[in-house]
């Protein structure tokens, strides 16, 4: 969040003065046909009004009226492990940032790296989702939109997020387990199949497909760039004015 | 977070025009001693420059230069149950909000009401604190300061918060267990002493006093209003410019 510095108000004052004094000189010259007096009037105007403009800027900086609260949204990526959530969410985040939308990126991995003992049981995951929902609420209170990527395999926890936040946009990245396994550069599917990982969505735990996703991407058909474009168009259409 | 609406830029244009045109008329009249022509010049100027000023405003709205990122702080209230954390933190929050500081209030109770299964063991509490630290980080990334009130009885978790966030201000509300018991309108100390509540700081679990608190309030000496004033003065001195 930003505030207008005094130096910015001064610079605005000077840039405006260049525009405004040229106009004044033109007008006075047009009326009196005396360029010398027109320039003299312009010079006096310059000195007087730079100060007045600055004072005017600072006064308006205190006035809240006419500033519109930015409406936040939550872009929620769900899908099996390795369906492409982080990759596509990162691309979308980068493009949205370039539009100067106040934004935070929330990724499952970052949080689980920070707090390794979160757990993967149904109860652990649901509790985790409630916390993430609380975090998004606090960010949204301050007009900050979020790009969140979490496996979030259970309907009830995605529903909880939808009830907690505003302008929830579920992006379901569709990919069957076989395709995700092919992409498995981390070797996690293999470890899950060997039983080394428990509660692994798609192998030894369920992934419940979303019924109400705003955007569905078939990752076996669309490339990551195409997927990001589809999502960006949706955001631009509904949330960027 | 706010954006400047078009209507705000137009209103600024008009209010500035009133100031500026009066000045122009004065200057032209001073040079040429012809009030009629001075007023005519002023009228032409008004029409031309309202449009120019608006365009100038909109152009500057796109320019990021000269806007300063607001520096966030974290006010962290720690102390025994019923030492007065919530009461004093609420007062401070209200006063800081009036100063137009972008702000969020985080209270132990709100989060525990939302997610009742957080737990009170040392491990549970420390994990909880890491999550709160993460939440504060995300808010601070967006210039949002926080007023947080948590018993936070362990040194290691307060240390973790300090390492995770910027401009951490620990406010230690000092009160001995006897005093807190006297204030116990909730009956929680009684329940803890009966063994109905486990891991209750000050009764059947330790409260480790902070060694590096920025502000220490002796709640047996200061009233809640006095405490809030002390804290506000600290914030005004260090963080409000």
Outline of the structure:
The structure is a homodimer of 241-residue chains. With 241 residues, chain A is of the alpha/beta class.
SSE map:
2 copies of one chain form a homodimer.
Chain A: E1 2-4, H1 6-32, H2 35-62, E2 67-69, E3 74-78, H3 85-98, E4 103-107, H4 108-114, H5 122-141, E5 145-149, H6 155-164, E6 168-174, H7 177-182, H8 188-193, E7 215-218, H9 224-239
Parallel strand pairs in A: 3-5, 3-6, 4-5, 6-7
Helix pairs in contact in A: 1-2, 3-9, 5-6
How would you characterize this protein structure?
2 copies of one chain form a homodimer. Chain A is an alpha/beta fold. The first copy, chain A, has 2 domains: 6-62, no CATH class; 74-239, 3-Layer(aba) Sandwich (Rossmann fold), CATH 3.40.50. Helices cover 56% and strands 13% of the residues of chain A. Chain A has helices at 6-32, 35-62, 85-98, 108-114, 122-141, 155-164, 177-182, 188-193, 224-239, and strands spanning 2-4, 67-69, 74-78, 103-107, 145-149, 168-174, 215-218. Chain A has a 5-stranded parallel beta sheet with strand order 4-5-3-6-7, with helices on both faces. In chain A, helix 1 (6-32) packs antiparallel against helix 2 (35-62), helix 3 crosses helix 9 (224-239) and helix 5 (122-141) runs parallel beside helix 6. The two termini of chain A are 20 Å apart. At the A-B interface, strand 1, helix 1, helix 2, strand 2 and helix 5 of A face strand 1, helix 1, helix 2, strand 2 and helix 5 of B.
């Amino acid at each position: 969040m930003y505030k207008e510095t005094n130096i910015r108000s001064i610079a605005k004052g000077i840039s405006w003065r260049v525009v405004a004094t040229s106009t004044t000189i033109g007008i006075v010259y047009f009326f009196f046909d005396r360029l010398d007096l027109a320039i003299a009037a312009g010079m006096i105007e310059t000195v007087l009004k730079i100060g007045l403009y600055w004072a005017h800027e600072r006064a308006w900086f205190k006035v809240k009226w006419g500033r519109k609260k930015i409406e936040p949204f939550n872009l929620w990526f769900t899908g099996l492990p390795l369906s492409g959530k982080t990759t596509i969410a990162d691309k979308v985040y980068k493009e949205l940032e370039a539009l100067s939308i106040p934004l935070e990126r929330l990724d499952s991995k970052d949080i689980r790296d920070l707090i390794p003992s979160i757990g993967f049981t149904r109860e652990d995951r649901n509790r985790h989702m409630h916390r993430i929902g609380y975090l998004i609420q606090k960010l949204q209170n301050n007009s900050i939109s979020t790009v969140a990527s979490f496996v979030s395999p259970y309907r009830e926890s995605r529903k909880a997020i939808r009830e907690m936040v505003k302008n929830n946009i579920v992006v379901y990245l569709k990919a069957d387990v076989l395709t995700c396994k092919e992409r498995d550069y981390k070797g996690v599917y293999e470890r899950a199949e060997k039983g080394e990982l428990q509660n692994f969505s798609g192998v030894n735990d369920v992934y419940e497909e979303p019924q109400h996703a705003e955007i569905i991407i078939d990752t076996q058909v669309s490339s990551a760039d195409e997927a990001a474009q589809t999502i960006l168009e949706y955001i631009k259409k509904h949330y960027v004015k």
